[in-house]
Specification:
The protein is of the alpha+beta class and 289 residues long. The chain contains six helices and 16 strands. Bound molecules: adenosine-5'-diphosphate and magnesium ion.
Length: 289
């Protein structure tokens, strides 16, 4: 049997090379405040993979995506092991575009900090009088460059994305930049509206696109999981303050209350967190995990 080792190991996910395809495995690792916690959150990886699958299916009419299968039977034999079952996605290998396509429907985080200073978010002027966590009149597209390891991603303007892509793909910069912007906004609008009807606010999120062998723009990476997005419960939503995170609130609260914990959570916090991931999945998909 051919064995595989990851070509890339991120904080939470592992990527395996399988020729024309990649196998992206979401582990049960969890991060909070930019640190990987010592606990594993059982089922988190599988829930997030199945959530991405749900959204890829839900939006395939807007833009093609890289998903091939989440069934390990379709993958090389090596992946027919319990540790990969349900949390792995086989994807078409793409040439990724070096732009992180961020879209914000609500004002929070770094966007809120910037607005308080000068009324703009990433150079986009917003109406006066917004309060923290307010819904924006229209979702805004605030791309960043995809930074080299260790660097921070930097905001770029739309024109900046045209330039970046034009350098890599002469004659195509404007076309690709426009396409990924339009897809980002269309994907966000459709999915955020749907999620809202199910009781979840998707405050913001990030998409990544790549090119397939024919130069078509294809949606890659993970899609609209709480790891790539800010999910807030609609119940209790109250502008004028920060909102609780749908999935990580128990973790954050506990870590703040226990600064000497060395990032090891008690079992009951882990259990409650697993339940939040299951709840998000069930609310969004209408099926029990
Ligand atoms: N279909 C794909 N083809 C090639 N690369 C992909 C594809 N989908 C996602 N990727 C890349 O796989 C990597 C996933 O790694 P990740 O754990 O998110 O770490 P990071 O975001 O720090 O690079 C990212 O670099 C992402 O751009
Ligand atoms: Mg990533």
């Amino acid at each position: 049997m051919k064995t595989f080792s990851p070509i890339k190991e991120g904080k939470v996910r592992e990527v395996y090379d399988n020729g024309d395809s990649l196998i992206i495995v979401a582990t049960d690792r969890i991060s909070a405040f930019d640190v990987i916690l010592k606990n594993k959150v059982t089922k988190k990886g599988a829930i997030l993979t199945q959530m991405s699958k749900f959204w890829f299916d839900f939006t395939k009419d807007i833009v093609p995506n890289h998903m091939i299968s989440t069934d390990v039977k379709d993958m090389p034999e090596f992946f027919n092991q319990e540790q990969y079952d349900g949390n792995s996605m086989m994807c078409k290998k793409l040439e990724m575009l070096p732009v992180e396509c961020i879209v914000r429907g609500y004002i929070t985080g770094s966007g809120w900090e910037s607005y308080k200073k000068n009324g703009t978010v990433c150079g986009i002027k917003l109406p006066e009088g917004l309060v923290e966590s307010d819904k924006l009149p229209e979702p805004i597209y605030t791309p960043t460059t995809k930074a080299e390891i260790g660097d921070h991603d930097e905001h770029i303007t739309f024109e900046g994305t045209v330039e970046t892509l034009e350098k890599l793909y002469p004659g195509k910069g404007e076309e690709y930049a426009t396409k990924i912007k339009e897809c980002t906004l269309a994907l966000y609008k459709k999915c955020a509206e749907y999620a809202l009807s199910k009781g979840i606010i998707i405050a913001d999120t990030k998409f990544e696109f790549g090119l397939d062998e024919n130069g078509n723009v294809v949606l890659g990476d993970e899609m609209l999981t709480p790891d790539s997005s800010r999910f807030w419960p609609l119940e209790g939503y109250k502008p004028g303050q920060g909102q609780p995170s749908f999935d990580k609130q128990f973790v954050r609260d506990w870590l703040k209350a226990n600064p000497d914990s060395d990032y090891l959570l008690p079992e009951e916090v882990v259990t409650k967190t697993v339940e939040k991931y299951e709840e998000a999945y069930e609310m969004l998909t209408g099926t029990k995990f």
